[in-house]
Amino acid sequence: MLRFAVLTLICSGIISSGNARSTINEREDELAELLRRESALESVVAKLTADVEAKAANVQNDKTATEENAKAANAENDKTATGQKNKQDYLLDKLLTREGRLENLVEKLSVSIENKAPITDAPQTGAPTTNEAYKDVEADVDNLKDGKEKNDQDEGISQLVDLDSEHADGRLIKSDRGEDINDINVYAMKQLEFKPKNRKKETKKGAKTGPVTMREVQFTGGVAGASSVYSLPTYQPANAFMQGSSKEWHSGHDSTGKGELSQAFPHTIWYRFTNKFVPAGVSFRTRNDNCCGPTKFRFVGTNDKACGQYSNWTVLCQDLSGIPFKNAFESKYCDTDVKATDAYSCLGIMVLASSYTKTSQTSIVGIRMWARE
Q1: Where exactly are the structural domains of the chain?
Q2: Would the pTM of this model clear 0.90, i.e. be above it?
């Protein structure tokens, strides 16, 4: 029995020892898992901390940049305000200077008037008569008015001083209108307050001064042509003379629409009418996408039997501004001289340049022409 009990205790101890070892291993595994999780958490915390610090730095940089921009804007505003104030001060000084000059001039003229004697009934020997003196003053006043028309105040003041010196005798004169004038200088200054007298514009001999009558012509019964066409029949010249159509004349190749895109400007489009008339003007537009419109052109005419590229063209008017079309709905105009009386049977547009810069190409639609009656 004793041996059995001892064996039982020994076996129980062995079993207990095995269980304890198993429990220790489990604890160690749990500890390792906890350490792994702690390491992972530390990594996450470190990453979050870095993100927070980076965002804080960005906020600080943005704040600094905003403050610097605000300072720069304030400095620019201060600079602008200072410049405007300096300009205002300069203009004020200039105005005060002119005002001072005018006051000095008035004072000088006042002193001059007080020191001058009136004219006597018997004119002095060699002295101009009243009418002669008045005419001289009228001429000088007209010159002063011209100076006022040009808004040249300094020049007017200078001329008025010269007038004061030239007519220093200051005699009493009477104008042709019966107006008593106590002093030539007072008269001159009084006249300067009047509005400039209206001068009739001279009309050249033979020029028309009345209204000009003109009528729009129709493109019927004639023949259209061009020195350059991109392709036929898609871009034929007749398209440009159609009203209310989106079809255009487009140039680029030769007159048959063949060859290389190397046809140098000018490119001319024309229309031969069945009857002659005196041209008054022309208008046209570019194509719907506002591409390739003429920027420089001439309105030309000829009476040659062979109306074409090599005809004897007469320039009736032109636009060499080089300004492109603002949009596809804008029209360009060219009016002939109202004194022109020559009639033509063939009229055209000679394009010298266009808004398309890669090659020599241009587009025109909606050509309209007017005849002078």
Answers
A1: 13-104, 130-192, 214-372
A2: no
Cross-strand bridge partners of residue 294: 354
Q: How many helices (H) and strands (E) does the chain have?
A: 4, 12
Helix 184-192 and helix 130-149, axial crossing angle in degrees, nearest 10: 30
**268 and 227 in contact (C-beta within 8 Å)?**
yes
- DSSP structure class, residue 259: S
Q: 349, 294 in Cβ contact below 8 A?
A: yes
Helices 130-149 & 153-166, crossing angle to 10 degrees? 170
Both structure tokens of 247: 């079809």
Tokens for 40, please give them. Answer: 């992972």
Low-confidence ranges of the chain (pLDDT < 50): 117-130, 133-134, 148-152, 154, 156-185, 187, 192-207
Written as six digits, the tokens of 9 are 């205790």
Question: What gap in Å lies between CA 350 and CA 332, rounded to an integer?
Answer: 14
What pLDDT sits at residue 370?
98
pLDDT attached to residue 249 = 98
The amino acid sitting at 323 is: I
The reported pLDDT for the residue numbered 331 is: 97
Residue with the two structure tokens 């008025």: 160
- 266 upstream amide cis, omega within 30 of 0: yes
Write the secondary structure of 73-118 as one string of H (helix), E (strand) and C (coil): HHHHHHHHHHHHHHHHHHHHHHHHHHHHHHHHHHHHHHHHHHCCCC
Residue 243 · residue 329 · CB < 8 Å: no
What CATH class is the domain 214-372?
mainly beta
pLDDT of residue 189: 52
Nearest to 249 by CA among 363, 371, 118, 369: 363
Confidence (pLDDT) at 195? 43
Burial 316-325 (b: 16+ CB within 10 A, else e): bbebeeeebb
Distance CA 139, CA 255 (A): 66
**Residue 109: how many other CB atoms lie within 10 Å:** 20
What average pLDDT does the chain have?
Answer: 76
Could you tell me how far CA 173 lies from the centroid of its own chain? 55
Q: In terms of C-beta density within 10 A (0-12 exposed, 13-18 middle, 19 or more buried), how is residue 103 classed?
A: exposed
